[in-house]
Design a protein that fits this description.
Layout (H helix, E strand, L loop, with lengths): L2 H12 L4 E2 L2 H4 L16 E3 L4 H14 L2 E5 L18 E5 L6 E5 L4 E5 L4 H10 L2 E2 L12 H7 L6 H4 L2 H4 E7 L5 E4 L13 H4 L8 E8 L1 E2 L3 E9 L2 H15 L3 E8 H10 L14 E9 L6 H14 L5 E4 L3 H12 L1 H8 L6 E3 L5 H15 L4 E7 L4 E7 L8 H18 L18 H4 L2 H14 L23
Parallel strand pairs: 2-4, 3-4
Antiparallel strand pairs: 1-2, 5-6, 6-10, 7-11, 8-9, 8-10, 12-14, 12-15, 13-14, 13-17, 16-18, 17-18
Helix pairs in contact: 1-3, 9-11, 10-13, 14-15
Bound molecules: flavin-adenine dinucleotide.
Length: 482
């Protein structure tokens, strides 16, 4: 390829000052959040409008360069990092598409461009007395494009669903440079195939999301947040089910955290304060209820329910946030879980989901199996129990560094095989990206995998977008390979 000609053509699409090629300038965009993957790209290109994105896509197609979309670069599966072996490629950074295009309180909708952060959407909604319920620890950097592309979950899925459930409309630039758009915010529209959910969770492999319309909700006027100690995960599952009956549908978050996770947060995050005196409990739950309206008596109902749970031995200790500062302090313990682990060092990470009823047996069985081969490892287990989603991370304590890459396939294979045996999924909310692309054939049926490959081939026949992620060799269905 004529690199100079290509770079000039890109500059004609977005302006010279938005095509970055200097190693020093582009290197932060070529490494993922965990620092696990480092990639290569000819340039980082920063369009400001949907028209510019379409022009860049057409230009890349003409010159035969791959397009790797990137938002906040907080993804945890290497999806936004170009692969060394898939050259030439550009990183298409959406950070200049920063407009909130509309906010409609009467419709309970907001439309925002790809580069707007989740926090900015939350704040815009709040300014109109509305709730944008997507909430995750990376919300200050994660973008509209990124959360749509990964179908992000977070701490409120229990009540409001994943990003896919929140998306009413999308604007997408396709592989031929065409633009499809449906941003009217309609709740009912049965005109043909549902194409929008297909792009949500496609991880930049089917098209570039340039804007999205999301559902909003009434802002809760009463919020009750509590940190409770429970004897074990089985009791936590029972408590989860019982609280929904006892208090009502206002349960917004139910986060499980094992002792080792809390210990890491207390060790590495200077402002973190233990919820109870003494040794951290073996298992904790951070739970939050929220309700809109006046006179809901939510605090009284939650307190009554927790008192009953203590009496029955389901809850060993409980602390309720008395004000917003205390609420934030409790949430900081949960939200810093990923950051604390990053400070601690390398671990084998597994973002898995299971039927909620199977979680306790999975936790016990997986530990037994792991300790059979690697007795000294440290297990850091936490997650969105209310969604059946565990972050099941294994720190290779007591194992020589040189052996880590060698044991990874066996160790992660053991965890994922156990997940599959219990009827679960090897990716709950972080996606497949590069990290798990090789695993899909093992855990998806052949029919499902072929369907995914056909979808990729139909929408991106030249494998322009984010090659090597999600579905490998996605430009032709496996059955058609010679
Ligand atoms: C501390 C921390 C906590 C986290 N907590 C959660 C959590 O609770 N729940 C959860 O689900 N995730 C969580 N994540 C993961 C991450 O924040 C989400 O995956 C988020 O959606 C990524 O958004 P981003 O803008 O950073 O996307 P990026 O990391 O830039 O990209 C992620 C993927 O989306 C694609 N992409 C990005 N923008 C576009 C676009 N405009 N069009 C098409 N494709 C695009 C990329 O190619 C890549 O495949 C967490 C991450 C961190 C660091």
């Amino acid at each position: 390829m004529n690199d100079a000609g290509f770079l000039e053509a890109l500059a004609a699409c977005v302006g010279k000052s938005h095509v970055h090629c200097e190693e020093r300038e582009i290197s932060p965009f070529l490494v993922d959040w965990r620092g696990r993957y480092r990639g290569r790209a000819l340039a980082v290109v920063r369009p400001a409008t949907t028209g510019e994105v379409a022009a860049v896509v057409r230009c890349c197609r003409t010159y035969g360069a791959h397009v790797v979309p990137q938002g906040g670069n907080t993804g945890l599966v290497g999806g936004a990092t170009p692969l060394e072996e898939q050259a030439p490629a550009i990183v298409l950074h959406l950070g200049r598409m920063r407009r909130i295009r509309s906010l409609e309180p009467l419709d309970f909708t907001v439309t925002a461009e790809a580069g707007v952060t989740v926090r900015e959407v939350q704040e815009a909604a709040r300014s109109a007395n509305r709730l944008f319920p997507l909430s995750l620890a990376s919300e200050g950097s994660a973008t509209v494009g990124g959360v749509c592309a990964t179908n992000a979950g977070g701490v409120h899925v229990l009540r409001y669903g994943t990003t896919r459930d929140l998306v009413l409309g999308l604007e997408v630039v396709l592989a031929d440079g065409g633009v499809v758009s449906s941003l009217q915010g309609l709740r009912k529209d049965n005109t043909g195939y549902a194409w929008k959910p297909l792009f949500v969770g496609s991880e930049g492999t089917l098209g570039v999301i340039t804007a999205a319309t999301f559902k909003l909700f009434p802002l809760p006027t009463e919020v009750v947040t509590a940190w409770v100690a429970v004897p074990d995960p089985a009791t936590a599952v029972g408590l989860f089910s019982w609280l929904r009956e006892a208090v009502g549908e206002g349960l917004e978050a139910f986060e499980l955290m094992g002792r080792s996770t809390l210990e890491l947060v207390l060790k590495h995050i200077p402002q973190a304060r233990a919820p109870f005196s003494g040794e951290p409990p073996a298992w904790s739950v951070l739970l939050e209820f929220g309700e809109a309206g006046r006179g809901t008596q939510l605090p009284e109902r939650v307190e009554r329910a927790l008192a009953a749970a203590i009496e029955r031995g389901w809850v060993l200790e409980a602390v309720l946030a008395a004000n917003e500062a205390q609420r934030q302090a409790l949430w900081a313990l949960r939200e810093n879980a990923s950051e604390a682990q990053r400070f601690e060092g390398f671990s084998f990470k597994h973002d898995v989901s299971l039927p909620i009823r199977a979680l306790p047996r999975f936790i016990t069985e997986c530990e037994t199996r792991l300790r059979h081969y690697w007795p000294s490892v440290t297990l850091v287990c936490f997650g969105h129990l209310g969604d059946g989603n565990l972050h099941y991370n294994v720190f290779p304590t007591g194992i020589e560094r040189a052996r880590w890459p060698l044991i990874e396939p066996q160790l992660s294979g053991l965890v994922h095989d156990t997940v599959a045996e219990f009827g679960g999924s090897i990716s709950a909310e972080h996606g497949i990206g590069r990290l798990k692309a090789d695993l899909l054939p093992r855990y998806k049926s052949e029919a499902e995998l072929t369907l995914l490959q056909r979808l990729k081939a139909a929408l991106d026949p030249e494998n322009l977008f984010n090659p090597g992620k999600v579905v490998r060799g996605g430009d032709r269905p496996a059955s058609e390979e010679t």
